[in-house]
Design goal:
This protein has six helices and ten strands. Helix 6 links the parallel strand 7 and strand 8. The structure holds adenosine-5'-diphosphate.
Length: 264
Amino acid sequence: MASAGSSHDRGSLEEPRGPQGTASGPDRPERRRAFVARGLTKVYGKGEVAVHALRGVDLELFEGELAVLLGPSGSGKSTLVNIMGGLDLPTAGQVFFHDLELTAFDERALTAYRRENVGFVFQFYNLVPSLTARENVALITDIARDPLPAEEALALVGLAERLDHFPAELSGGEQQRVAVARAIAKRPEVLLCDEPTGALDSKTGVLVLEAIERVNRELGTTTAMITHNAAIADMADRVISLADGRIAGVRENATKSPARALAW
Ligand code: ADP
């Protein structure tokens, strides 16, 4: 799993929530931080055409939580998640994954970080059309250190009966669930989902959300899910709202809605 080591201390950062990265309180169990971002800025282009995608983002993600990043198109959600996932680097600011500073990594270190720690799910499923569901997942499990068997990963997302189907024989929602199985089969510590239901109707989208919810609950995978759909936010532990490259608010859901209760 994480090559972050056992120490989660990050001595160089301020500790706004108490010692050892915890957020404990009288009625809250200890929460360890998987990610800390400080002052993240991302500018695409230069001069008059410069686009300020992130304008100084401070953010924490806690181990095992399901966080929804909510905001309109263009608010910086993908840019933020791509930086946390080691797909991109900011123009300024720092991101820590436990005690690893991702923003100090070179390409090679970022690749290793992604391979060992991060599962991605995007709006479009990107399955290999000539491979079955099982083979699409096995592409990953064949090269992972301690993977879930492909069959187990597919059962977790409700596709135990579809192992030998090709993508063209599956609905959009089923294909996306294969993509979720593929993302989590290497047992990543983190699952990053960018508009996973963006191409789906409400009914099939909910099945995908149920799969993500189950992975989060049963494997304890720290999950951040991007959406512009406010209805989805109710299934999160915390809702982090973005607007114009800034964090516009953070809300904790006292009671989470089960994904199956959502509709839009
Ligand atoms: P969201 O995920 O909330 O839709 P993005 O992070 O994709 O927002 O984009 C934030 C802003 O950055 C948008 O104005 C977008 O057009 C711009 N942007 C994103 N990626 C690039 C890029 N590679 N080059 C130039 N501008 C980009």
